[in-house]
Amino acid sequence: MASLSLKNVCKKYPNGFEAVKDFNLEVEDKEFIIFVGPSGCGKSTTLRMIAGLEEISSGELSIDGRVVNDVEPKDRDIAMVFQNYALYPHMTVFDNMAFGLKLRKVPKDEIKKKVEEAAKILDLEKLLDRKPKALSGGQRQRVAMGRAIVRNPKVFLMDEPLSNLDAKLRVQMRSEISALHHRLGATIIYVTHDQTEAMTLGTRIVVLKDGVIQQVDSPIKLYNEPDNLFVAGFIGSPQMNFVDAQCVVEGDKVTLKFDKFSAVLPPAKAKKLIDGGYAGKTVILGIRPEDISDSQIEVETFKSSLIEADVTGYELLGAEVLLYFQIGGANFTAKVDSRTPARMGDHVRFAFDPSKIHVFDKETELTIT
Ligand code: ATP
């Protein structure tokens, strides 16, 4: 397995469009790296440059310390798994998995050993004689994985490998891929636009927007400490609530006021706003739906951040329920315990712990605290 380094990598397509701008990333051995971001942000382009399927316009790509910009895809020791599996319909599972090795003139005995090993890892042993059309979507996906595994590559690249599967199978395959990563001790780079997939699989996540890296961090750090408004809104579901707020400073006390409501910031957060010169300015207040509560205890505890509003939407998820409401024209969502008595149309008192507040600069959209 291997390390990988991208230095100032850019991709400019022949039509002049810059799909990837100054991409810098060091991937360590055995990492599970996720590229995540909205459609068109440059995830696949970056992955394809690593695979060698797309030329790098400028910058440097190294695998295990060796610059590979001009190395042919087949000589990069990388295996790619695509979303459409790309299996050969006329070949059996065994032959599909063996195909790449046969091309490389690997001896027959060795091919058999490697395919059988991979089939065991992927629980495909009983299906080796079947053709792809006699397999389920999840089984086909496992064959596509198997084809990559038998090559024992330095790096696995996966481009939305689960996007063709139904919701239930996706969840199942997600945990299978995670287990596979541990079993193989492989370096994996995985593209998805699904943030749940990103959060559950990645050791580190690269969040991309318009070809530019927004943040590279562990899932928990991205969730708790997003660097900017975009990352804050992209990571977490339902997305973080945002509202314009007035920053009112009285001595050491900082209050964020929005509509007829206000929240007093804890000292550490207050200091960041005072030091940053935000007194009297408009900032963006962010609070996650799961950090807003309608429980009596929280409402009593966090009196300084009380919100009263009419519930305009009610969505039962199971253990939790989403309550929708509006404040001064801004839409809010609260994710609360489904035992709540609150229903559509009710006037409800909500509160949140002010230490859970995120504050962003309105112009730069960078995180203040
Ligand atoms: P998705 O999630 O929709 O697959 P992505 O993040 O993988 O999106 P890319 O496929 O990397 O996005 O594309 C990045 C940008 O580059 C897009 O705006 C796309 O239209 C553009 N692009 C892709 N291929 C070409 C090309 N051959 N010529 C010009 N522009 C291209």
TrEMBL record:
Where in this chain does the record put each ABC transporter domain? 4-235
What InterPro entries does the annotation carry?
Answer: AAA+_ATPase, ABC_transporter-like_ATP-bd, ABC_transporter-like_CS, ABC_transpr_MalK-like, ABC_transpr_MalK/UgpC-like, Mo/tungstate-bd_C_term_dom, NA-bd_OB-fold, OB_MalK-like
Q: Which SMART domains match?
A: AAA (SM00382)
Q: Which UniProt keywords apply?
A: ATP-binding, Nucleotide-binding, Transport
Task: Name the domain of life.
Answer: Bacteria
What Gene Ontology molecular function terms does this protein carry? ATP binding
The record's listing under Gene3D superfamilies reads: 2.40.50.100, Nucleic acid-binding proteins, P-loop containing nucleotide triphosphate hydrolases
Which NCBIfam families does this chain map to?
Answer: PRK11650.1
Its protein name is Sn-glycerol-3-phosphate ABC transporter ATP-binding protein UgpC
